[in-house]
Amino acid sequence: MKQLTYLLSIVLLILYACGSKEKSELTEAELIEKAKGIHERVITLDTHDDINTTNFTSGTNYTQRLSTQVNLPKMTEGGLDVAWFIVYTGQGELSPAGYEKAYANADDKFKAIHRLCEEIAPDKIELALTSEDVRRIAASGKKVAMIGVENAYPIGTDISRIKEFMERGARYMSLAHNGHSQLSDSNTGESDSVWLHNGLSDLGRQAISEMNKWGIMVDLSHPSKAANMEMMKLSKAPVIASHSSARALNNVSRNLDDEQLMMLKENGGVVQAVAFKSYVNSEKNKANSEKVEAVIAEVAKAEGFEIVPRSAIREMSDEAREKYLTGYMAIREKAKPRIEHEVNPIAPPVNVADFVDHIDYLVKKIGLKHVGISSDFDGGGGVEGWNDAAETFNVTLELVKRGYTEEQIAALWSGNLLRVLDEVQEIAKKIQAGEIL
């Protein structure tokens, strides 16, 4: 037996050496060519792309190459097949007036996404409600839109709105954002140790049941750890984290720690690693950002452009915010040569390799079938090399460089997430039929 084991070990070592030799013999050009083929064949899916509804009008929309990180031309350039457009609502007062305002915001965003798919560009993009839809639409050559709800605050105290959101196309929803909602505590409670529910409220527990019933994936990104653990215990279906990375690699409250990750694995869910600089590597991002901001401030001053704090941007109207961000991006573009020559050599930015480090960690910790990819574009996301949809190929290239196979890359880009969606929708059918209580 020992001799057999020894011989088997020798064979495995020879096979490994041969495989390593083949990989090492690939030139950079060959790696790129290999990655291009894989990127073309797999379905690439990004689970979190924020929107501004001023970009969903007949005059200004995603058929144009806007300054937004995501739009149809950039998706085409980068080979991004599926974008989950987000019905995001910032946390406000827990009052009837607050709920009414939040619902109006959500309603506006649902309508905008449908307008893009049904009126503005139905020949270029289509809304998917199932994994079969995704594959069918992608095969047709059109881009795929899907809808996620970030912060269930807009449902107010009317639990029936969960079914309404499902009927309007929502396929995942988080119960909180930055600030405690009527349903769940937020991760932001870690900063001051002030909690509203110590996890979920009674209404939040009802919401999990309703989401299971109507086939909406439960999203762990943004709620508190206690809320997330409770959600995974309560959910009869697998859950997702639509845009969170590994806390073991970067200790911020928006990332999932190992305890949550292991529970997500047991639940059968998937965590979509997010390319958000400060979640990927806070220290590296801080060192780069401080120097970048100093250069941008100098260029802005010379151009007569006033830079305002992020909090002030959030308070702007949609039109004012869009105008400001367009101006800011123009200033940043002018500062780009100085940033590349003066800043990046001494304080390099967080990049695609740093991002894929999180994917590697998650794959090793909980298994490849539980890991996916997201950007948080137009919501603060983006890293050097994947700063908009036009650069999506670079993620696939980095995965190929690290030895991931085409099958594994297909699972990371879309297969794992779509598998969870299938399971969630199948469980919903059984709940509705009374087969699961």
Quick tags:
globular; 52% helix; 10% strand; alpha/beta; disordered N terminus
3D structure, described in words:
With 437 residues, this protein is α/β, with parallel strands linked by helices. The chain folds into two domains: 43-281 and 350-432, TIM Barrel (Alpha-Beta Barrel), CATH 3.20.20; 282-348, no CATH class. The protein is 52% helix and 10% strand. Strand 5, helix 7 and strand 6 (217-219) form a beta-alpha-beta unit. Helix 8 (225-234) runs parallel beside helix 9 (258-267) and helix 11 (282-303) crosses helix 13. The radius of gyration is 22 Å and the shape is globular. Residues 1-23 have low confidence and may be disordered.
Superfamily at the CATH H level of the largest domain?
Answer: Metal-dependent hydrolases
- Secondary structure: helix percent: 40-55%
Number of strands: 9
The class by helix and strand makeup works out as: alpha/beta
CATH fold category name of the largest domain: TIM Barrel
Oligomer status? single chain
Total tally of structural domains: 2
Largest beta sheet, briefly?
6 strands, parallel
CATH class of the largest domain: Alpha Beta
Instruction: Give the averaged pLDDT, no decimals.
Output: 93
Looking at the structure, what is the overall shape? globular
- Our measurement of the CA-to-CA distance between the termini, rounded to an integer number of angstroms, reads 51 Å
The fraction of residues assigned to DSSP E strands is 5-15%
**Radius of gyration, in angstroms, nearest whole number:** 22 Å
Count of separate DSSP helical elements: 16
Parts with pLDDT < 50 across at least 5 consecutive residues:
1-23
The second-level CATH architecture of the largest domain is Alpha-Beta Barrel
- Along the chain, the helix and strand elements come as HHEHEHEHEHEHEHEHEHHHHHEHH
